[in-house]
Amino acid sequence: MEQTKPFNSVYIIGISFISALGGYLFGFDFAVISGALPFLRKEFLLDPVWEGFLTGSLALGCIVGCLIAGRIAEKYGRRPGLMVAALIFAISSLGIALSKGLVYFVIMRFAAGIGVGMASMLCPMYIAEISPAAVRGRNVAINQLTVVLGILITNLCNYFLADTGVDAWRWMFGLGVIPSVIFLVGVLWLPESPRWLMKAGQPEKAKQVLNKIGAPAFVETTLKAIEKSLTGNTKLSYKAVFEKSVRPAVLVGITLAVFQQFCGINVVFNYTSTIFASVGSSLNQQLFETVSIGIVNLLFTLLAMWQVDKLGRRPLMLIGSLGLSILYIALAFALQNQLSAGIISILVLVAISVYATSIAPITWVLISEIFPNKIRSEASTVAVVSLWGAYFILVFTFPILAKILGTYGPFYLYAVICFCGFLFIKTKVKETKGQTLEELEDNLIRH
Asked: Please, which residues bridge with residue 214 across strands?
C-alpha cells in the first residue's frame, strides 16, 4: 500500500482462476443432472424417492470428499488435494457415461461427488490463503464464477445434446472428462499455500511464494502475522474446532453453509424441468429455461465479484435472504395458480439473480475467511460437510414434497427459511471485508 504496486495482480488472478477450475467441476455436476433427468426418468423408470436419491447421491459423495480433502490438505498440502479431486472427477465422469444400470449409475455419481466435495472445500480455502486482504473477497468469488460458468456451459451442452436420442444423457455426463483434465494440468503449475507451508515448518518456501504475490513489505508483514497466529499450535483434532474460543465463528460458518442450501435455490437448478413441466412446458422449453438460468447466474455473479469488496459481505447477505423470501412467496403463488410459463420464468430468473449476487458467492467467501489459521482446514471441513448434508436433504426431499404438496408447496417452506436466515445474519454475522485473515482471528479472540 505504501508502494505503487504492492501486489502482483496478474499472478494472483492467474493462480486464483486455475485453482477455481475446481468450481467448474462443481458447476458441471450440479447442472448436468437437470438436463439429464428427463432421460434418466425413462432409462431407469424413476419414482420420486429414487429421483431424489439419484440427484442427491452427489452430495453424499461430497461429504466423503470433504473429509478426505481435510486430511490430505493438512498432511500433504492444498495442491495435492486439488490434483486428487481432478483425477477422481475424470474417472467418475467416464463411469457415469458408461453406466448399465441404476445402482451402478448412483455409485459412479457418488464417486463424482467425492471429487466435487474435495474441490468445493479446497478451492476457496486455497484462494483465501494466497490472496491479500484487499482482494480476497473478489478472488474467492472467482471460485463461484467458475461454478456458474460450469453451470451455463453444461446447460448449453445439454440443450444441444437433447436431440441426439435416448442416450443423450451419456454424452452429457461424459463431457465432464474435458474440464477435469484441464484442471489437473493447471494444478501442476500452482504454488503451495504459504500459510500451509508455514504450518508445515517450511518458512523459506512460504517466503518464495509470497515474493511472487507481493512486495517485500507485504511479504514481511504477512510472514510475521502467520507466524504469530500459529504460535503454540499443536496437532489438532476435530475437537479443537468446537473449543470455546473459536466456537462462535464455527457455529456461524456451519449455519451459513446449511442456510446456503436450505434457502432452496438449488431445487431450481436441479429440478428446472420438474418446475416448468408442472405448468405445461415442453422438454425443449424446459432445457431452454436451464440455459436462461445459467446466463442470469453468470451475469449476476460478475456483479457480486465487483461489489463483494466494496459493499461488503453482510449487506449483500441481508439483501439476498430477504429478497429470496419475498420472491419464493410470489413463485409459490404463481405455480399454485398455474400462471403462464413466462411469469414463472421471470420470477425464477429474478430469484437466481438475487441468489447469485449474495448468498451463493458470499457464503463461500465467509467460510474461507472467518476461521483461525490453525483450525482453518478442520473448521472448513465441518462447515462444507454440513453444506453438502443440507444439499442432500434439500434435493432428496423436493420430489417427495412436490408429490405430496404440489410443486408450489415447498417454496412456501423455503420462504420461511430465508426469513429466518435474514434474522440470523442480522444478529450474528459481522463484516469481514478489508481485514487480513490474521486480523479477523485477533478480533475473534478478543470477542
From this structure: 7
CATH code of the domain in which 218 resides: 1.20.1250.20
Whether 188 is in a domain gets the answer yes
φ/ψ of 324, rounded to 5, equals -65, -40
Cα→Cα distances 357→125, 144, 306, Å: 20, 10, 10
CA distance 223 to 319: 37
Q: What is the pTM of this model?
A: 0.78
User: With contact defined as beta carbons under 8 Å apart, do 168 and 177 qualify?
Assistant: no
Q: Is 7 helix (H, G, I), strand (E, B) or coil?
A: strand
CB neighbour burial string for 251-267, b if at least 16 within 10 angstroms, e if fewer: ebbbbbbbbbbbbbbbb
Q: In which domain, by residue range, is 395 found?
A: 9-446
Q: Is residue 3 part of a domain?
A: no
Domain count, the chain: 1
Stronger pLDDT, 405 or 8, i.e. the higher one: 405
* 49-72 tens-digit pLDDT: 999 999 999 999 999 998 888 788
For residues 274 and 51, the answer to whether their CB atoms sit within 8 Å is no
Domain membership of residue 4 (yes or no) is no
User: C-alpha cell of 7?
Assistant: 501486489
In a domain, 66, yes or no: yes
* DSSP-assigned states of every residue in 10-37: HHHHHHHHHHTHHHHHHHHHHHHHHHHH
